[in-house]
From TrEMBL:
Record-given protein name: APC family permease
Localization annotation: Cell membrane
Keyword terms, alphabetized: Cell membrane, Membrane, Transmembrane, Transmembrane helix
Gene Ontology CC terms, in alphabetical order: membrane
Topology within the bilayer: Multi-pass membrane protein
A GO BP entry: transmembrane transport
Keyword Repeat among UniProt keywords: no
Keyword Transmembrane: yes
Pfam families: AA_permease_2 (PF13520)
Amino acid sequence: MPATSPKTVTAAPPAPAEPGLRTGSLGTADIAFFVVSAAAPLTVMAGVAPLAIALGGIGAPAGYLLAGLTLAVFAIGFTAMSRHVTGGGAFYAYITQGLGRPAGIGAALLAMIGYNGMEIGVYGLLGSATQDTVHALFGADIPWLPVSLIGLAVIWYGGFRSIDFGAKLLGVLLVAETGILVLLAAGVLLKGGAHGLSLASFAPGNVLVPGTAAVLAFAFAAFTGFESTVIYRREARDPDRTVPRATYIAVAFLGLFYAFTVWIAIQSFGDARVVKEAGSNPADLFFTAITTFVGGWAADVMHVLIVTSVIASLLAFHNAINRYGLALADEGVLPRSFGRIHPRHGSPYMAGLAQSALGAVVVLVFWAAGLDPYAQLLLWVNTPGMLGLMALQLLAAIAVPFFFRRITHQEGVLRTVVAPVAATLLLGAAIALVISHIDLFTGASPLANAVMVAVAPAVFVLGFPLAHRLKRTRPEVYEQFGQS
């Protein structure tokens, strides 16, 4: 009987790996660009700082320094915890592990409402800012809706592409918008201001005035989104070092740059004149200053760069929202389709598509209702988002000491107790200031303001019955929530 040769068994090829985020793509500077771009420094300075000067007087620069110091204190405990909580859920994961799953689920809802509110409302600003720019440069009037819809498409594409593409684009836009403010500063400093340079803005008698409360409210709002550094942890190089560094750099840059730029604006008119100018025509304050000290061409460039500043802010918030959507899909809370990652670009493209679709719906609803892109779409949608993110900062600060009490660690008491408790008190005071001056942010009726203030706590509280339902119907998802 002839010998039979043994059958050759061919191993099945390994299943292709699931596409994932581009790990190791972002350095400290890249993450800092995302955070600072979200704050939109040029837009905040040209659009909001004149109001802070009008209300708080020449001591307004100190308000931005105080806000920056408060958030630096918050960052001490926040970044200490970031070394121990390594998932992509950022705020809600921190709050879950410090305060429990029901609070964490409420925080997840609050994060989605907060970041979406901060981003979608800004499409109204994009439309109105572009209208103003086209009118200033060409004397033409254009409708705002097509601009906002084109912006939605551009931002969707930026989020669809790889994260390093977004970082490079934001780097260019951020350098441009800060560059025009540096140019203004150089012109003012070289010419010695309107009547010589003065440090009276930092004198206690000019800082400790009733209007400083309003300045602080504007100042805290100007930092919104700085904490999103931790959202990019999975895409960062050496995240234990990169994320804390980017957080501190972002806070320090924004605090110092805001204070310096507001001081420059004051010097361009002089201490005696600037409050009157800011009160009578706040929208033109920075344009008048740069025309006087640099030239009319620089004012034209500033008009254009305000539009690109808004685009940079939109893209930064869009990328943050996408990663929250991805994290919640990975948790099993959102549909799994939201967690799909593009095989080529490494981007959470389905979460981005859903977010852009939501933005388009909101924009179209406001347009169909005949509402103003700035006074209604921006302010009515942005304000609840801002309060939501500030509430998340407060909850995260509260969560830090509770988290470190439950684990074995080698962090010092300053980082785990003293700084978080101080941050809790300071952030609580900041939220109270914003709420007490909410009419300055919205220009709306008392009833509308009450509704906007109520959104954040209502959304957070809604998380508790949803957590109970999740625990009863999907216990495996509930048990794993926020634990990655």
